[in-house]
Specification:
Number of strands: 19
Bound molecules: pyridoxal-5'-phosphate
CATH architecture of the largest domain: Alpha-Beta Barrel
Strand order of the largest sheet: 2-3-4-5-6-7-8-9
Number of domains: 2
CATH topology of the largest domain: TIM Barrel
Shape: elongated
Largest sheet: 8 strands, parallel, barrel
CATH superfamily of the largest domain: Alanine racemase
Structural class: alpha/beta
Length: about 375
């Protein structure tokens, strides 16, 4: 028998969350962002839940290949564009739209041989300072692209650094939105500026023609803990669950696990769960991180090890070897443990936990 750990991907939750993105930005088309193997869910697993999207956006070219292999014929956008000249051949062959964020990418296009001109998304660096042309260089880049026979249509994009919060005590997107509007004023073409946080919080003023919904499709909350999944009406698309494989009865003064970081003050029954950091559970999750035991809340105790972690069985006299433990996502009897809560306890974000789901965890799909 395999270890009892498994991940479940909930396709109806993906469809629900995608519909939430549509509702938040009713005038925009929605890219479902499926980079990083659909945020750890698996592109093939997530696609049936997200196929109502207007397009799919990702980073890796091989993910675009996988999506076309699933027979998706609609728009695909490479969010970072090409990494070298010959990537453009794949773009031509698979009809991929691609971001253009630097001069080199325009150089490659200028020498690319294609019968079908490409649709590109010219990226403005409006202040995040990762990728994109500065406001001063933007117009010249647009003019250069516009003169190329390899280019058909030029859309305009930028990315917000603080759509999930305030920035220096002020509105998180105002400065970048203003920079985008100034740099693109009187340029033709469709606009795309919103990630999940901006879609949920700012779509009324920043919606544009396309929103890029990533984390929200998977039920992760971009602005947790200010808001939670219930507030935004998002459903978990991934469950990580396992079972107890051993029980220990601690006496006062006993410790659990490496480093003896947890010491019982009184007699305490603890259960060992077949889940550790080699499964993608965060090693930094401290004692007290929430878990569900048979759908009811408890907490971890002691350090997370490679293949195991310990949970407090106080109040669970019925728990024994084989009892179901939910690490995040949906538990039995309609219970839910939001991934954001676990991530927050471990000092990270839901994004990182989803993406880190380890290959050794078997994944199955729920289509209803
Ligand atoms: C990842 C990414 C997104 C999606 O971000 P979420 O916060 O997951 O919604 C949008 N745009 C770009 C350019 C990205 O890289």
């Amino acid at each position: 028998m395999p270890r009892p750990i498994e991940a479940l991907i909930h396709q109806p939750a993906l469809a629900h969350n995608l519909a939430r993105a549509r509702k938040a930005a009713p005038d925009a088309q929605v890219w479902a962002v499926i980079k990083a193997n659909a945020y750890g869910h698996g592109i093939e697993n997530a696609y049936p839940g997200l196929r109502a999207a207007d397009g799919f956006a990702m980073i890796d070219l091989d993910e675009a290949v996988r999506l076309r292999a699933l027979d998706w014929r609609g728009p695909i956008l490479l969010l970072e564009g090409c990494f070298e000249t010959r990537d453009l051949e794949l773009c031509s062959r698979l009809r991929l739209w691609h971001a253009v964020h630097c001069e080199e990418q325009i150089d490659w296009l200028a020498v690319h041989k294609t019968h079908e001109p490409h649709r590109v998304f010219l990226k403005l660096n409006s202040g995040m300072n990762r990728l994109g042309f500065t406001p001063t260089a933007f117009r010249a880049a647009w003019t250069r692209l516009n003169a190329l026979p390899q280019v058909d249509e030029i859309s305009l994009m930028t990315h917000f650094s603080d759509a999930d919060a305030q920035r220096f005590g002020a509105d998180g997107i105002a400065h970048q939105l203003a920079a985008f509007e100034t740099a693109t004023r009187d340029l033709p073409g469709e606009r795309s500026v919103c990630n999940s946080a901006a879609t949920l919080r700012h779509a009324a003023r920043a919606g544009g023609d396309w929103v890029r919904a990533g984390i929200m499709c998977y039920g992760g909350v971009p602005d947790y803990p200010e808001h939670d999944a219930a507030h935004w009406d998002l459903q978990p698309a991934m469950t990580l669950r396992s079972r107890l494989i051993g029980i220990q009865q601690l006496q006062a003064g006993d410790t659990v696990g490496y480093g003896s970081t947890f010491q019982a003050e009184a007699p305490l029954r603890v259960g060992m769960v077949a889940c550790g950091y080699a499964d993608g559970y965060p090693r930094h999750a401290p004692s007290g991180t929430p878990v569900l035991i048979n759908g009811r809340r408890s907490r971890t105790v002691g350090r997370v090890s490679m293949d195991m972690l310990a949970v407090d069985l106080t109040g669970f006299p019925e728990a024994g070897v084989g009892t179901e433990i939910t690490l995040w996502g949906r538990g039995p009897h309609g219970s839910v443990l939001p991934i954001d809560e676990v991530a927050h306890a471990a000092g990270t974000i839901g994004y990182e936990l989803m993406c880190a789901l380890a290959r050794r965890v078997p994944v199955s799909v729920e289509s209803v």
